[in-house]
Design brief:
heterotrimer; A mainly alpha; B alpha+beta; C mainly alpha; A: mainly alpha; two-stranded antiparallel sheet; 3 strands; C: mainly alpha; 5 strands; 63% helix; 3% strand; globular
C-alpha cells in the first residue's frame, strides 16, 4: 500500500483503517490495565503491612475474633457478580448490544447487592479501628476495597444510563469492556484479603 | 574557641571507628582512582580526531566491534572492583560485630526530647543510678549500650568511637563499643527528633579503670546537705518551686524523672546537653528562661527574685 | 469496518468536528495540547525550583556561622522540610514529566498524548498541591517533620496541629499528578508511535521516560498508602505506627523508603536519557551500545526496588539482611557504569562541539560520578553507620540529584529551548551560567562530605563554635550563592531569549530524532503530519515518509512492538471538565484534614464532575440503539 510521491518520499494511505477497535489494541485497555497495576500495588503494600505487623504480636489476632458468616457472604456475593460481568463483557466484545445492556443492568444490580453484603460485613467487624494496629489494617483494607467496589458500581450505573440513550458511540463498547476488566480486578483483589482476615481471624 | 571534646570520625579513638575509617580510606582511594580513570577517558575521547565520514551513519562492523570490546572490558573491571568493595564491606562488618564482649560494662541509654539519660546498674542496696549528659566509661573494656527511646526515634552517635545506632520507642537496640585511649568524646543525636534536635549532645568520657570506679562511687553518693545559709536557702527555693516535679537530686525529696538528674550537675562540663557553659551566669539565665538558649525545650522558665536566684544557683553549684 | 455494525450507523447526526470558538483564557485553561501542558509543567516546576532554592539559601545563611539567629528552630524545621518536599515532589518529578509530556509524543511521532484531558487534570492537581503547601508554610503551618516524616515524631502525639497533615496531603496531590502522567506516557509510547517507530527505534530519552513511568506506577502506591495511614493515625485514631498498640515505627520507614529509593531514580533516569540525546546530537554519531543502554535503564529501574533498606542501616537490622542490601546497592552502579562507557565510546573520535548545552553534560559527568562513588561508600554498612544522617549524605544526595538530574536538565533545556520556544538561547550566557552552576555547586557541596565525617549531623539549625565546623559551612554558603547566581543567569538567558532572541530553525543542531522534523515551536496537534519512520535515527538515516488519510481531529493507534498501523481514534474536544474535576478533587483532599466527612462529601462533587467529563459527546460513529436491538432480535441474524 506504500507509494512514493514525486520526491520519492514514501507515502501510505491509512484512510481505510478502522475507526473502532476492542481489547488490547486500544489505548483505553492499556490505561485500564495500568490503573489496575497501580491499585494492585496499593493493596499489595497493605497486605505486606499486615504480615509485617503480625510479626510484632505475641497473640494474633489480638482483638475479638472475626465472624465467619458475614465475611463468607460478602466474598460470595462478590464472586457471584463475576457471572453477569463476564457475560456482558463477552457481548460487548461481540458487539451484541441488547444482550450486553441486559447483562450490564443485572451486573449493576448484583454489585449493589455485594455492596449491601459488604456493609453487613463491616457492621459485623467486632472491633473499632482504634483497637490496635491489627484492627487498623483490617479496617483500612476493607475500607479501601469498599471504595473500589462502590466506585465500580457507580461507574456501572453511569454506563447503564449511557446505554439507554437513543444512540450510542461505538467507543462505548470499549468503555464497557474496560469497566468489566476493572470490576474483575476489584473482585479478585479481595480474595487474598478475605482469606487472610477470615481464615486467621476466625480460627483459634 | 577551643574544642572541649573530640567530635570526628576522622580521629578514631576506638577499635570500631578505626576499622570503619580504614574501610573508608580504602573506598576513597578506589573512588579517586576510578574518578581519575573515567575523567581521563572522557578527556581523551573529547580530544581524539574525528573522521567526518563516520558522521550521521551507523558505524562499520569493525568500528563497532572494537568499541563494544572496550565497553565489555570496562564493565568487567567495574564488576570486579565493586565485588572487591562489597567483600571488604562485609568483612569489616563482621570484624566490628565480633568485638569481644566479655564482661562488658552495661549501660542503659535513654533518649528523650532533647536530652540523654544514662542508667548504670550497680550491685548493692541501690540497683542503678541515673545521670545525664556525661557517660563515663573505662578504657579498654567493651561497653554494651542498651538504647531505648522514651518518645520519638533518636540516634546515639559518638563518631570517635563507633557508628551510630537508633533508639526507637518500645524497641531495644544494642550497640557495643570500646575506647582505646582516654579522652573526652562528644556525641550528638543523629536522628531528627524535633525542635531542639540540634542541641541534644552528650559526652563520652573514657578514663582508666580506677578513675571510672571512683566516678561510679561518687555518683552513688548523695551530696551532703548544705551548711551555709545561702545554699540552704537555695535548696529551699528548689523545693518550693516546680523544679522537683521534673528533676531529681539524691539525698533530697526531689524525685522527678521528666528531666535530667541533677545530683552531680556541678561536675558536668556543660549544661543543657552541651548548649551552654556550666557557670553561674549561664545557669542563672537558663533557669530564668530556658527558651532563650534552647527555644522549644519543655522546661518552663522560672523567674525568681534576685536573691532567690543567687541562692539557687549557689546551691546547684555545690552539687559535685 | 464490520458491515453489520455499519448498517446500524447513521441517522445520528454527526456533531460538529470543528470546535466552538472560545476565548484565549478558556483555550488555555482547557488545552489538550501536549506542548502547552508540557510547557506549563516545566515552567511551574522551575518556579518551585526557585522557591525551594530560596529556602535553601535561607538555610545556608543560618548555618554559615555558629549560633546565628537568621531563623529560629521552629521556622528552620519548616524550611528544611518544605525545601526537601518542594525539590522532590514539586520540582524534580514534575519537570521530568513535563519534558516527557512535551517531547515523548514528538519523539515517537504521535500527534498528541493518549489521554490529553488527563494530562490537563494532572497539571492542575499538581499546581493546587504546590499552592496548598506554600500557603501553609507562609501561615506558619508548614510541615516540620522532614520530607520523610518519620513516626513517632510525625504522629499525633508529637506533631499536633495540621502541619504534618499538610505534608501528607501534599503527597496525595503530587502522586495523583505523577501517576496520571506516568499512565499517559506509557500508553502514548506503546500505542501512538508513528508507523515504523518500532520499540527498538525509540530514542533513549523515550526509553528513559517509559522506564521511569513504570517506576512511578510501582513506587508511588507505597507512599500513598503510607501517608494515608499516617493521616489516619493522626486524624481518626488508628494505630498503624503506634508501638503501644502493636504498630511499628519501622513499618513507616519500610513503606516510605520502598517509595523513596525508586523516587530518586525516577528523578535522574530521565536526566540520563537527556544525556544520551545530547551526546548523540553533539557527536553526530549513532549511540554506541543502544541495546546495552536500554537494558541498563531497565536494569536500573528493576534494581531500584531492591535497595530501600540502605536508608535504615542504623535502625538495628540483622546483619545478613543488611549485607544483601549492601550488595544490591553496590551492584546498581554497574548498569549506570555501562551507560557511562557507552557515552564515552560514542564521543570517542567524534570531536563534539563543546557548546553551552554540552558544557552541562560535562558538568554532569564529573558531578554524577562523584555522587555515584559516594553512593557506593554509603552502601557499605560500616561506613554508612558513621556518616548516615550527617552532612556527608546531604553532599551525596545533592551530587547525584543536582549532578544527575539538574545538570542534564539545564543541558536539556538548552538543547530543546529552540523547539520549546522558537528562539535560541545565548551561548555566552549559557557558558556563564554553567560555569557558575558547576563551580558554585562544588564549592557548596564538596566541603559537606568533610563536615559529615567531622561529626556534623543533618537537620540541625545551628552548631557550637567549638566544633570548628564554621569555616567549611561559610565556604559552603558562599558556594550556594554562586550556584544561585548560576541559576539566575540561566533564567535571565531564558527570559531574554523569550522576549527578543534570534528565531530558531526546525533543527538548529542537526540532530537526529523526530522532534527536530517539525517547526520550532511545533504546530498544534491537528496540523501535524504523521510521519513514516525509516530508522532509529530518522533525520540522519533513511528517508522520512508521510501518512495520509487521517483527519485533523484524529489520532493514529499503532501496535505496541512493531508500530504497524492498527486503527484511528478521535481526539477529545477540550473543555473545562479536567479543571473542574481538579478543583473538586483539591477540595476533597484539603477538606479531609479537617473532617472525615470531607471524603464522602468531596467524593460526591468529584463524582459529579467525572459524570459530566465522561458524558458521551456523540462525535464518533454511533449506533441507533433501537434499530440495533430490533436487528439483533431477528431470528435470521446477519452473519458476522
Amino acid at each position: 500500500m506504500s507509494e512514493h510521491s514525486a520526491t520519492h518520499e514514501p507515502v501510505i494511505d491509512l484512510s481505510a483503517l478502522p475507526r473502532h477497535a476492542m481489547g488490547a489494541r486500544t489505548p483505553l485497555w492499556w490505561g485500564t490495565v495500568l490503573l489496575i497495576a497501580i491499585e494492585s500495588t496499593c493493596f499489595a503494600i497493605l497486605f505486606t503491612a499486615y504480615l509485617y505487623v503480625r510479626n510484632d504480636f505475641q497473640e494474633w489476632p489480638p482483638d475479638e475474633h472475626m465472624r465467619a458468616l458475614p465475611g463468607a457472604v460478602s466474598a460470595a456475593s462478590l464472586l457471584l457478580t463475576i457471572v453477569p460481568t463476564w457475560l456482558y463483557r463477552v457481548h460487548a466484545c461481540a458487539h451484541r448490544f441488547a444482550n450486553m445492556r441486559r447483562w450490564l443492568v443485572i451486573a449493576t444490580a448484583a454489585s449493589f447487592l455485594a455492596i449491601l453484603a459488604r456493609i453487613w460485613e463491616i457492621h459485623a467487624l467486632p472491633f473499632s479501628w482504634t483497637g490496635s494496629a491489627y484492627a487498623s489494617i483490617v479496617w483500612m483494607s476493607t475500607g479501601m476495597h469498599t471504595v473500589e467496589i462502590v466506585t465500580g458500581a457507580v461507574e456501572s450505573v453511569f454506563m447503564c444510563v449511557v446505554l439507554f440513550r437513543p444512540k450510542m458511540e461505538l467507543k462505548t463498547f470499549e468503555d464497557v469492556e474496560a469497566s468489566a476488566l476493572f470490576w474483575f480486578f476489584s473482585v479478585f483483589i479481595w480474595l487474598p484479603f478475605a482469606a487472610l482476615f477470615y481464615v486467621e481471624g476466625v480460627a483459634r | 574557641m577551643a574544642p572541649y571534646a573530640a567530635h570526628s570520625a576522622l580521629e578514631p579513638a576506638g577499635s570500631q571507628a578505626s576499622q570503619i575509617l580504614r574501610l573508608f580510606y580504602g573506598y576513597f582511594d578506589v573512588s579517586a582512582l576510578v574518578f581519575t580513570l573515567v575523567i581521563a577517558a572522557l578527556g581523551i575521547a573529547l580530544g581524539r580526531k574525528s573522521d567526518p565520514s563516520t558522521e550521521k551513519r551507523e558505524p562499520s562492523r569493525a568500528q563497532a566491534r572494537s568499541k563494544h570490546r572496550a565497553i565489555i572490558w570496562a564493565t568487567i573491571a567495574t564488576v570486579i572492583t565493586l565485588l572487591a568493595l562489597l567483600v571488604a564491606s562485609v568483612a569489616t562488618g563482621h570484624t566490628i560485630a565480633l568485638l569481644p564482649a566479655q564482661s562488658p560494662v552495661r549501660i542503659q541509654v535513654i533518649g528523650h526530647k532533647w536530652w540523654w539519660e544514662f542508667r548504670y546498674p550497680v550491685s548493692g542496696p541501690a540497683t542503678q543510678f541515673r545521670t545525664a549528659y556525661e557517660m563515663h566509661i573505662p578504657v579498654g573494656r567493651p561497653i554494651e549500650l542498651e538504647l531505648v527511646a522514651s518518645d520519638v526515634i533518636h540516634s546515639f552517635w559518638v563518631p570517635n568511637l563507633s557508628g551510630k545506632r537508633d533508639a526507637i520507642p518500645m524497641k531495644h537496640n544494642v550497640l557495643v563499643l570500646e575506647a582505646d585511649r582516654a579522652g573526652v568524646y562528644e556525641g550528638q543525636c543523629a536522628e531528627f527528633c524535633g525542635t531542639e534536635h540540634a542541641h541534644m549532645r552528650f559526652l563520652v568520657i573514657a578514663e582508666d579503670a580506677k578513675q571510672f570506679e571512683a566516678w561510679k562511687d561518687a555518683e552513688l553518693q548523695s551530696p551532703p546537705p548544705p551548711t551555709d545559709p545561702l545554699r540552704q536557702r537555695g535548696l529551699q527555693v528548689f523545693m518550693d518551686s516546680r523544679c522537683k516535679n521534673c528533676h531529681s537530686i539524691g539525698g533530697t525529696d526531689a524525685f522527678g524523672t521528666v528531666g535530667p538528674d541533677l545530683t552531680h550537675v556541678a561536675s558536668r562540663k556543660r549544661l543543657a546537653m552541651g548548649t551552654i557553659e556550666n557557670d553561674p551566669a549561664h545557669l542563672s539565665r537558663w533557669i530564668n528562661d530556658p527558651q532563650a538558649d534552647k527555644p522549644g525545650v519543655p522546661m518552663p522558665g522560672t523567674p525568681l527574685p534576685a536573691e532567690d536566684q543567687r541562692a539557687l544557683v549557689a546551691y546547684l553549684g555545690g552539687l559535685r | 469496518m464490520n458491515p453489520a455494525l455499519e448498517s446500524t450507523l447513521g441517522h445520528a447526526p454527526v456533531t460538529r468536528t470543528e470546535p466552538r470558538r472560545h476565548s484565549a483564557v478558556y483555550d488555555w485553561l482547557a488545552s489538550t495540547e501536549h506542548t502547552s501542558i508540557g510547557r506549563r509543567f516545566i515552567a511551574t516546576a522551575l518556579g518551585f525550583f526557585v522557591l525551594g532554592g530560596i529556602l535553601a539559601l535561607i538555610m545556608r545563611l543560618q548555618l554559615a556561622r555558629p549560633l546565628l539567629h537568621v531563623v529560629g528552630p521552629d521556622r528552620y524545621n519548616q524550611i528544611f522540610t518544605t525545601h526537601g518536599s518542594t525539590m522532590m515532589f514539586l520540582f524534580a518529578v514534575p519537570v521530568m514529566q513535563g519534558l516527557g509530556l512535551y517531547f515523548v509524543p514528538l519523539m515517537v511521532g504521535a500527534r498528541n498524548l493518549a489521554f490529553p484531558r488527563l494530562a490537563n487534570f494532572a497539571f492542575w492537581i499538581y499546581l493546587f498541591g504546590g499552592i496548598f503547601l506554600y500557603i501553609a508554610l507562609l501561615s506558619n503551618t508548614g510541615p516540620d517533620a522532614g520530607w520523610f516524616a518519620y513516626v513517632p515524631l510525625s504522629g499525633p502525639e508529637h506533631s499536633p496541629g495540621k502541619r504534618v497533615d499538610v505534608w501528607a496531603q501534599l503527597i496525595t496531590f503530587t502522586e495523583l499528578s505523577a501517576l496520571s502522567v506516568a499512565v499517559n506516557l506509557i500508553v502514548t509510547t506503546f500505542k501512538h508511535k508513528a508507523p515504523g517507530m518500532s520499540l527498538d527505534r525509540l530514542p533513549i530519552f523515550v526509553w528513559g521516560s517509559l522506564v521511569t513511568s513504570f517506576m512511578v506506577l510501582f513506587a508511588m502506591p507505597a507512599v500513598i498508602i503510607a501517608s494515608t495511614c499516617l493521616a489516619l493515625d493522626r486524624l481518626v485514631g488508628t494505630h498503624f505506627f503506634n508501638p503501644a498498640e502493636g504498630g511499628d515505627p519501622l513499618l513507616w520507614q519500610h513503606m516510605f523508603w520502598f517509595f523513596g529509593h525508586p523516587e530518586v531514580y525516577i528523578i535522574f533516569l530521565p536526566g540520563l536519557g537527556m544525556v544520551s540525546e545530547i551526546v548523540v546530537s553533539a557527536s553526530k554519531r549513532t549511540l554506541v551500545g543502544y541495546v546495552p543502554v536500554v537494558l541498563a535503564n531497565v536494569a536500573t529501574a528493576v534494581l531500584a526496588f531492591g535497595l530501600w533498606v540502605h536508608h535504615m542501616f542504623a535502625t538495628g537490622l540483622p546483619q545478613l539482611g543488611a549485607s544483601f542490601f549492601t550488595g544490591a546497592s553496590i551492584l546498581i552502579a554497574i548498569p549506570t557504569g555501562v551507560q557511562f562507557f557507552c557515552w564515552i565510546a560514542t564521543i570517542w573520535g567524534s570531536k563534539p562541539k563543546i557548546d553551552a548545552q554540552f558544557s552541562f553534560i560535562l558538568a554532569f559527568f564529573a558531578t554524577f560520578l562523584i555522587g555515584g562513588l559516594t553512593g557506593v561508600m554509603l552502601a557499605a554498612v560500616p561506613i554508612n553507620i558513621q556518616v548516615h544522617d550527617t552532612f556527608f549524605v546531604v553532599a551525596h544526595l545533592h551530587y547525584v540529584l543536582i549532578g544527575g538530574a539538574v545538570f542534564p536538565l539545564l543541558g536539556g533545556l538548552t538543547h530543546w529551548f529552540p523547539k520549546l520556544t522558537g528562539r535560541l538561547l545565548s551561548e555566552r550566557l549559557g557558558f556563564l551560567s554553567s560555569a557558575f552552576v558547576f563551580f558554585g555547586f562544588n564549592i557548596a557541596f564538596f566541603p559537606q562530605h568533610l563536615l559529615g565525617l567531622r561529626g556534623m549531623p543533618r537537620r540541625i539549625y545551628t552548631y557550637l563554635p567549638e566544633t570548628e565546623w564554621g569555616f567549611w559551612n561559610l565556604i559552603s554558603t558562599i558556594g550556594a550563592f554562586l550556584l544561585a547566581l548560576g541559576v539566575l543567569t540561566f533564567l535571565v538567558n531564558a527570559a531574554r531569549s523569550l522576549l527578543d532572541g534570534p528565531a530558531a530553525p526546525a533543527n538548529p543542531w542537526g540532530a537526529e530524532s523526530l522532534e527536530w522534523a517539525v517547526s520550532s515551536p511545533p504546530p498544534p496537534s491537528a496540523e501535524r503530519e504523521i510521519l513514516l519512520v525509516p530508522s532509529r535515527y530518522p533525520l540522519w538515516i533513511g528517508q522520512l515518509g508521510r501518512v495520509v488519510g487521517i483527519a485533523r481531529d484524529e489520532q493514529l493507534v499503532t501496535r505496541v512492538v512493531d508500530a504497524e498501523p492498527d486503527h484511528v481514534v478521535k481526539a477529545p474536544i477540550p473543555n473545562l471538565m479536567p479543571l473542574v474535576t481538579a478543583v473538586a478533587t483539591a477540595g476533597l483532599i484539603v477538606a479531609c484534614i479537617f473532617t472525615p466527612w470531607g471524603l464522602p462529601i468531596g467524593a460526591l462533587f468529584v463524582g459529579a464532575a467525572l459524570f459530566v467529563w465522561f458524558w458521551p459527546t456523540d462525535r464518533e460513529p454511533a449506533l441507533d440503539t433501537e434499530r440495533r436491538i430490533h436487528d439483533e432480535s431477528e431470528p435470521k441474524a446477519e452473519s458476522t
